Amino acid sequence: MSWENIRKIIHVDMDAFYASVEQFDNPELKGKPVAVGGSRERGVVAAASYEARRFGVRSAMSSKVAKRKCEALIFVKPRFARYKEISQQIRNIFLEYTDLVEPLSLDEAYLDVTFSKKGRPSATLIAQEIRKRILKDTGLTASAGVSYNKFLAKVASDVNKPNGIFVVTPENAQNFIDELEVRKFFGIGKVTAEKLNKMGIWFGRDLKQVERFELVRSFGKSGNYYYEICRGVDNRPVEPLRERKSVGAEQTFSADLFQMEELESKTEEIATVLWERYEHTKAKAKTLTLKYKYADFEQHTRSKTFLGWFTTHDELVAESNALLHAEKFEKGIRLLGLTLSNFQHDEDRSEPVQLTIEF
């Protein structure tokens, strides 16, 4: 395979975006371990600076655990309006090079630069130029992955983080995949990686030895995806105009949860992830759904629709916990999920409406 007649995809991922914004806006935080979200006593970390990550602090971690890992951790209240403002600046830079921009969240996006507006044939040069522009215009660093499909570009962007770039060419793609640990494959989560490891599959080269039918039997339709990506095949296009009808987040637990306190903590973690994704949609969601699955895979959902829409992270957490407490759990919980739907795509409505339950 050569670069001729194939797509040129860039995945740009901002480095510790929320925390980096806070450090840039407040120089006193520079070089210090910062956690965006939560507090010293309770809550969940939405993002952590690289200084905090060295101590093991991660997003979606409870504040108490984060504080135990890093005594000097500084908690900062999230400013989502500010993050959206800078995200739009970055988006505008992308659009100078191509209209094929697919945002994944406020801090990352795919770009198809096969036919760049600036006529530059090298995707690598474009990625380097974009990173320089982002630094110049926002003061923030970004990492980038460059390849011929979305899977490889996404994985590549993580190789030289922070503030780095990595290119996977058609010529070296298979060797790169063969040597890649399956836990680092985009689309393979922690639980799936553990299952693959138990099957003796640790690297891409191991995954490539498994027949398609066996992967589908073990992992359902995802098995087809695993079979393709370990061979460097990913034909998904960059989709700039997707209109989402819902947004969700869920978590499968390695051990079943029985205590309400544990469930509350996990629900807040999931709500924090969901809020970031919801912010990106720019829509106004009126329906919240809680999903839970028992250890025996029996699944239940409970939804609530409001007259208004969600305007703050705290509202989402509060209503998610309200749905949680409305349930009478009979067995251990292996999965929790939250979904926002019933979107109102009305950009002219700027005044929030108080959440009121429809009876």
TrEMBL record:
Enzyme class label: transferase
Catalytic function, reaction form: DNA(n) + a 2'-deoxyribonucleoside 5'-triphosphate = DNA(n+1) + diphosphate
Record-listed E.C. numbers: 2.7.7.7
Gene Ontology biological process: DNA repair; DNA-templated DNA replication; error-prone translesion synthesis; SOS response
Record carries keyword DNA damage: yes
Cofactor note: Binds 2 magnesium ions per subunit.
Molecular function in Gene Ontology: damaged DNA binding; DNA-directed DNA polymerase activity; magnesium ion binding
Disulfide bond keyword on record: no
Subcellular localization: Cytoplasm
Subunit structure: Monomer.
Function statement: Poorly processive, error-prone DNA polymerase involved in untargeted mutagenesis. Copies undamaged DNA at stalled replication forks, which arise in vivo from mismatched or misaligned primer ends. These misaligned primers can be extended by PolIV. Exhibits no 3'-5' exonuclease (proofreading) activity. May be involved in translesional synthesis, in conjunction with the beta clamp from PolIII.
Name by which UniProt lists this protein: DNA polymerase IV
